[in-house]
Amino acid sequence: MTTLRTFIATALLGLTLCVGSVYAADPPSADAIQQTLDKLPDRKLPDADMKALQTILQQTLTYLGNKQDYEQRLADLKRQLEAAPRQTTDNQRELVRLKATKIIPVAQRYATLPVPQLEQLLVQRTTQQGDLQKELAEANSLTIAAQTRPERAQTEISSSQTRIQQINSILKAGKDNGKTLSGDQRNQLNAELAALNALIPLRRQELAGNSQLQDLGNSQHDLVVEKTARLEQEIQDLQTLINQKRLAQSQQTVTQQSIEAQKAGGSSLLATESAANLKLSDYLLKSTDRLNDLTQKNLQTKQQLDTVTQSDSALDEQINVLKGSLLLSKILYKQKQALPRLTVDRNLADDIANIRLYQFEVNQQRELISTPSTYVDNLLANQPPDDVTPQLRRTLLELAITRSDLLERLSRELSALLNESITLQLNQKQLLSTATNLRATLDEQMFWIPSNKPLDTEWLETVPDHLSKQVTTLPWASSVSELYDGLTQRPLLFLPLLLLIGALLWRRKALYQRLNKVHLDIGHFKRDSQWHTPQAILINILLAMPVSLGLALCGYALQIDARGQNANLGAALLQIAQAWLVFYTAYRILAPGGVAELHFRWERPQVHFLQGWVRKLGLVVLALVAVVAIAEHQPAALADDVLGIGVVLTCYALMAWLLGRLLLNSPTHEKASLFRKAVGLMFTALPIALFIAVCFGYYYTALKLSDRLINTLYLLMFWLVIEATFVRGLGVAARRLAYARALAKRQAAKEAGDGEAVIEEPTLDIEQVNEQSMRLIRLALLGGFIAALYWVWKDLITVFSYLDNVTLYEYTSGTGANISMVPISIGDLLGASIIISITFALARNLPGLLEVLVLSKLDLAQGSAYATTTLLSYVIAGVGFVSTLSTLGVSWDKLQWLVAALSVGLGFGMQEIFANFISGIMILFERPVRIGDTITIGNLSGTVSKIRIRATTITDFDRKDIIVPNKTFITGQLINWSLTDTITRVTLKLGVDYGSDLDLVKDLLLKAARENPRVLKEPEPHVYFLNFGESTLDHELRMHVRDLGDRNPVIDEVNRFINREFKNHHINISFRQMEVYLKNLHGQEYKLVEVDTPAKPANDGGAQEPPPSKLD
Hints:
By secondary structure, the protein is of the alpha+beta class. 70% of the residues lie in helices and 7% in strands. It contains 32 helices and 14 strands.
């Protein structure tokens, strides 16, 4: 019965295991898939279908390759696990043997070897060192992989099993997403299933042997580290021995030449030649010293380069292996701290040039003395025959042979020196480049990975224990002792700063008195000046400097000492000193009756509010910068920094509350511009974002951003003060100009004899400041602010390149065989947002700025500047729109069809709007009307004030703005009174009585026109007698005026002149007359005539009766 049960259970278990593979078939062979892929072009499929099928076949080949790779790796892993215990034991024994072996000094082992053999041995040891570096990297990779393998393997096995179930379900149904599977798709799924079935045993085998692999990696690591340390020491000793032997040879040569120089005796020729040899030997000794120094530097640089290169090559593997683990952040922190401090020799280029030049001179001397006997004969040929002796010739010949040998050795030494210099220069450049790239990669990875666990309930439960442990583990006693020693060991070094602090404290009362005197001069039309405000700000800075200098002095002393925690405390004190200087200065500027209130004319409630706000924010920033400075210098301890996290979160919360209060509750928040509100909202959101980042475990990221946030806050406060100072300076300049004009006006009045005039003191009015000057100053300040902002954030700009790795979507690029998928990342989305912001800012501000800076200084026709700036804004908006779409993957070759379709559709539905838009473009280009032109269109007359895309605004003579569609200007009849010439003709018509003197009428009319200064002489005025009217002789006066504004004044002045002169010359201006007849009921008819009745005195105070009517 038991046997039967066992059989049934086994059968059921086998059935369960096999049911998942019922619908799976054997995977296809790679050769068959490759043949299908090669014959794919012969099938003449559409491009889309061919592309999809090609992708399926290529993916199938990839899965089949992965399957073979997993199977091979599994076989290699089994062999490695079989040999792992023996290899671990051998490594441990070898390590014990190495540590027990006494190291024989290199100088003892190779003392008898010559320099060439020692140099060859050094090359061999350097090659061995490179091999050990590779072994060390392999051991580190093995250890790191073993440490993180359990969680990674379990996750991968779980996801693989889930995918296997999905594939089996798809194969069972025969459909994927509602579509029937094709044969190629089935092959792809079977190949993927086979790869997953090969991967799971590999991961399980790795889990089973993980402890053995970790032991093997640790043993290899320890053994290689010991070998590397011994080999590095041997290389250093070898190089030292080589340097000593070279130096000894050079010193021996110098000694010999010194003896030869002493033997020269009284012969001037021998003395000169001996001195030349001695000089060459001295230079040979210096070259040897320099060569030894460069060789040592080259060796150190090469070792650093090998270490950095090895770390750089292993970085990607570490990131892939430890992705998502907190261990990665700790490893990256240690690697960054282990990066070498680079000291590049800036003089190498000049040294190389000097060596080449001197080598050329040495070669010339070698050619000159190549034949010593000939050289000696040439020397003796210039000597008197009596002085030439055989002994002198022999001695000179020996000196010449010695010099030839010296020059030969010096030439070899210079060649070696040149090679070492060039090698060192190349190695330093490569080390600088590699280390810089590695540092940037480390910063990028450290910025975007969590450094701590998320602050969840589990973390909150462990806070008391971690806090107690952190406080108790701090070396309080030693830290206090080290702090005291660091502050007291160098009193003389800091004596000048201490004297400066004492002087500032001693003169503090005088500074207050000087500040009050400056404040009293503000507003006085003679004593006030533009330098009063900078002087007052400088005095406030001096008042803040004693405490700031004291803190900075202590911080600098601790950083020089650098024992224990002194370096971290020193960095914190330096940051506190900077924060104190900024915020206390701002607090003094905002004092009642201070710079902000008297100089900047800020409202008193606003100043009072800001002073309290700055005091509170300053205390928060002091605490925050201290914690940030200490934490940034201890990145490896961030995971256990509970105290720092608590302080930072509290400071973020308080900062967000204070910034929000400034944004919403400030007395002048309703008057703030949109730009300042946006900046305030951004600054309020940043602490909140940093608070959330810390809660999610991004403590290091928050610290890096906090530092930049605080520096940006300093920069913004400085910008506001500088802007207010410039505004105040321009206001003082405007006031002085107004005062000077008032003095000039009074002087002119006195000279004209009008008597003394009382000069009223002009009041300071910022609105009088020249608008162009304000724009230029704000532009310069904005440019400086942007440059400083870039300087603050430049070291973090590179970390945002990590966003390019986060893909949002992909789009197709190219056609036919060149088609490819291009990813769009978060970095592209951020770039598009930046382009939109820049486009909006440029389109809004650049045209006006161009008009102020350039166009206003050019002699342009009326309206040209407006047309230029308007078209420029359209171009900027169009380029920005196309650039944004291109950044987001919407290329023009795809967009043009959409634009064409929309143009056709909108062209019918919005015909009038498009007609007005095109008409607006034509108006700007052809300029039939311009800004400021006086026009008449239909029954509407006025001045053009605005030209927009759809319509143009006309201001009529009643000061009413009338919106006219642009199409009207193109299709309708338009009168532009000032398009080409502002001269217009004014015509006056009048009639005189019959019988008037026509010549006199003509003369008087011409006189009226010619004597008016508004009437032009050319064309001259004319008078014409045009018509015999019913009761008038009709005349017409035609005259021309220069400007449209002269028309109505000319008509008024000429009419008054004509009326006056005609009355003086008894000429009547005819007017229509009407005779009125009244008829009564009896048929009697009477003509109404004017009756002149003399005035009579009133009778008895009664009213005078009207005359009787003839109808009575």
